[in-house]
Design a protein that fits this description.
It is a single chain. By secondary structure, this protein is of the alpha/beta class. The chain contains nine helices and ten strands. Strands 3-4-5-6 form a four-stranded parallel sheet. Strands 9-8-7-10 form a four-stranded parallel sheet. A two-stranded parallel sheet has the order 1-2. Helix 5 links the parallel strand 4 and strand 5. The longest helix has 20 residues. The radius of gyration is 20 Å and the shape is globular. It starts with a helix and ends in a 6-residue tail after the last strand.
Length: about 250
């Protein structure tokens, strides 16, 4: 979503500074889109239940990031992850904050913390679904809440010819992690009677931010089923174009 946004920022003559933890192709793509980049310290955090070490690290990261944000010459702060939201709210100094909500947090303490930060910053929230927006509505004024679905600009509306290869291609797209539901997808696939449906099951995505045991479980459930693992792909439009049915079992 950030990389989709940057060309519009550039075309308006605005300056963009992209800050993210770690290093990787995001920085290269952001610079190619005309943005400056900065590396920040945030994490790493354990998956699943958080430990005392995670809590201490989060507090330290929040203070450090708040101080960094305060010093930046920015007219507006945009972020699409809940973890740095508290630091952004504390470091904004009255500047507009836009939070692009793309996940259902689930945990009460996470929603409470994010809600306080949104109220403190009087942030504008852009949610990618009404389901995601619902967790923030008690904390955000109606005029500051917007639902805008994520799109794939490379696929125009067009007629589709299904069942073209004599079997259905039923797929799931997302990083391999418990919240994305690959295990549930494969359990459901195993329940389909082979004599009623001729299908191949597609899993597009790589393992990220998830315990290795989950990938092992997904591979175990895939054994004996007609499953294709595509790995991490950037051409999502092409993946979607090759599917007859997209399944979204994500819990977040």
């Amino acid at each position: 979503c950030l990389l989709d946004l940057l060309p519009a920022v550039r075309d308006r003559g605005w300056r963009a500074l992209v800050a993210a933890p770690g290093s990787g192709p995001l920085f290269e793509a952001a610079r190619a889109a005309g943005a400056e980049t900065a590396r920040i310290q945030l994490g790493p955090y354990g998956s699943g239940s958080k430990s005392t070490t995670d809590a201490v690290r989060f507090l330290a990261d929040t203070v450090r990031l708040r101080n960094w944000i305060r010093l930046q010459d920015a007219d507006m702060i945009y972020l699409s992850a809940p973890r740095p939201l508290l630091a952004a709210a504390l470091g904004a100094r009255g500047r507009p904050v836009i939070f692009h909500a793309q996940h259902f947090l689930g945990k009460r303490y996470a929603v409470a913390t994010a809600g306080w930060a949104l109220r403190h910053a009087r942030a504008t929230v852009i949610a990618d679904a009404h389901y995601v927006a619902a967790q923030y509505t008690p904390h955000v004024a109606p005029d500051l809440m917007h639902v805008i679905y994520n799109g794939v600009s490379e696929i125009p509306f067009c007629s589709r010819r299904f069942f073209r290869d004599r079997f259905w291609k039923i797929g799931l797209i997302g990083r391999i992690a418990p919240m994305k539901g690959q295990a549930d997808f494969l359990r459901a696939a195993a329940l389909l009677p082979a004599d009623l449906i001729n299908a191949r099951f597609i899993i597009c995505g790589g393992p990220m931010f998830a315990p290795p045991e989950y990938l092992e479980e997904v591979q175990r459930l895939a054994a004996g089923l007609p499953v294709d693992f595509l790995g991490w792909r950037t051409d999502i439009a092409g993946v979607l174009a090759g599917l007859d049915m997209l399944v979204v079992p994500s819990t977040s």
